[in-house]
Write a structure and sequence with these properties.
heterodimer; A: about 170 residues; mainly alpha; Four Helix Bundle (Hemerythrin (Met), subunit A); B: about 325 residues; about 0% strand
């Protein structure tokens, strides 16, 4: 089990590396999907099967499909690959590298024996998630749903038939 | 070690059974279509034409594996595999008998939803990698259709989950000892069936591969066994949705006198027949009609179903 966990962690890291280094947008997206699936597997092994299933359904299944959809519509050819290759060289790596170093330091601190001993892990199933969402986090759920409603209304407005829109200048 | 061997044997037997029944389904469909359209269908090769399946398979295997020079090669090869693997993985959770679901997960139903949402990638990437306008249009349609119908497929299943109190398919079947869920969840059943047809791209929802406008949709550029994998996945999808209808709404293995597995097979076969009958009988709608129907009619109905079920249970 532990071996499987580290294996999927390794896959997630390698795939994430390919996402950043990739010059072809669709291939990079495919690697991102692999990363998400590997993370879902890690959730599953950590005792959160519900979170794992949601990770696959929502992130890998829905959001990434929309991204692939958009990139397909743009239909970028080889010129985009060349441009990406030109962007991905030299000084552009400094900022991300700094942020990653901070994260790495934090990870190292968490792996110290003192920090490890205080952590506690337990399996979280669908019922527990539901109780948490509709108990202490009720307000956040409502706020998120309002945000989504606003997005929905906005999308509806943008795609209304042209004759209902106010006349544009020029 | 012996335990691993048993698991391996079960996986292999299920795999063999599924591939053979999907292949037979291609023959069965053509014979049934023939019956309902007042003609014979394939009846030359072997008894009743059963060996037509073998002939078709040999033809597909013998064909030239052609990858178009303008295609995105790695993605082009990967796409049919994604479609086939996700459909096959979904079968892992189906409880054929009380003792034979390969895995009885406590998130079983969510696993099925996850696999169907991953299957979209196969079609989308197949269409993209072909670098062909018909394939791209087919793939775009397919993605939009699948995403829309996925939304209320999940919602229509939640009624069942609420009544059974679990995502595990084994527990859902056991909860139907008294009464099959097709009675209290009648609306949910209809919605799931419509969504299931849309997910498996069968008529009347086969817009992604509408022959008269898109040649063959997303698999226009595919030939040989790569096309065969798309084809097999479609028929496996039909069996999968039928098996899920049986499990979720018609009591799975439950039934008097006959053994459990036979009940399961009989019920599933009945739904497969229904799939074929719909292909024989229904015309294909326009694409915008399909989307309107999904969002403006089926989604509100699914929400209503969920609300009423929750209200009754509380």
């Amino acid at each position: 089990m532990q071996l499987l966990f580290y294996l999927s962690a390794l896959i997630a890291l390698l795939a994430a590396w390919r996402v950043i280094r990739g010059v072809n947008a669709v291939h990079a997206l495919l690697y991102l999907i692999v990363t998400l699936l590997a993370i879902a597997l890690m959730f599953f092994m950590l005792g959160a099967p519900f979170a794992a299933a949601l990770e696959v359904i929502i992130y890998a299944g829905a959001i990434m499909v929309l991204m692939v959809f958009v990139i397909m519509m743009l239909n970028q050819g080889d010129s985009a690959v060349g441009q990406e290759r030109a962007w991905l060289s030299g000084r552009i790596w400094r900022g991300p590298a700094l942020l990653c170093a901070v994260l790495l330091a934090q990870l190292g601190y968490l792996l110290l024996p003192a920090a490890l001993a205080s952590g506690d892990a337990a399996a979280v199933d669908a019922v527990a998630v539901g109780r948490a969402l509709y108990g202490p986090y009720m307000l956040l759920v409502e706020l998120a749903s309002m945000l989504l409603l606003a997005a929905l209304v906005g999308a509806w407005h943008l795609t209304r038939a042209l004759k209902h829109r106010p006349r544009e200048e020029g | 070690m012996a335990e691993l061997g048993v698991i391996g044997l079960r996986v292999l037997s299920l795999l063999g059974l599924l591939v053979v029944s999907a292949a037979l389904l291609t023959w069965l469909e053509r014979r049934l279509l023939g019956l309902w359209q007042d003609r014979y269908g394939p009846n030359r090769v072997g008894p009743f034409g059963v060996l037509q399946v073998v002939a078709d398979m040999l033809k597909l295997l013998g064909k030239h594996e052609f990858v178009p020079p303008f295609a995105d090669r790695p993605v082009f090869v990967l796409a049919p595999a994604i479609v086939l693997v996700t459909v096959l993985l979904s079968f892992v959770i189906i409880p054929f008998t009380p003792a034979f679901p390969l895995v009885d997960m406590n998130v079983g139903l969510l696993f099925f939803l996850a696999m169907t949402s991953l299957a979209v990638f196969g079609i989308l990437l197949g269409g993209y990698a072909s670098n062909n306008k018909y394939a791209l249009l087919g793939a775009l349609r397919s993605a939009a259709q699948t995403l829309s119908y996925e939304v209320f497929m999940g919602l229509s299943l939640l009624g069942v989950v609420l009544q059974a109190g679990s995502f595990s398919l084994g527990r859902i079947v056991e909860a139907q000892q008294e009464l099959w869920f097709c009675v209290p969840q009648f609306l949910g059943m209809l919605l799931f069936f419509v969504a299931g047809i849309a997910q498996s791209h069968r008529l009347p929802f086969d817009l992604p591969e509408a022959e008269h406008e898109l040649t063959a949709g997303f698999h226009t550029e595919y030939s040989g066994m790569k096309f065969g994998m798309f084809f097999l996945a479609e028929y496996l999808g039909v069996i999968l949705v039928s098996a899920l209808m049986t499990t979720l709404f018609f009591g799975g293995w439950l039934g008097p006198v006959l053994p459990g597995w036979l009940w399961f097979v009989l019920k599933t076969t009945a739904f497969v027949f229904l799939f074929v009958l719909m292909r024989a009988a229904l015309p294909r709608p326009r694409y915008d009609q399909l989307m309107c129907f999904g969002w403006k009619c089926l989604l509100p109905l699914a929400l209503l179903n969920l609300t009423v079920t929750g209200w009754v249970l509380l």
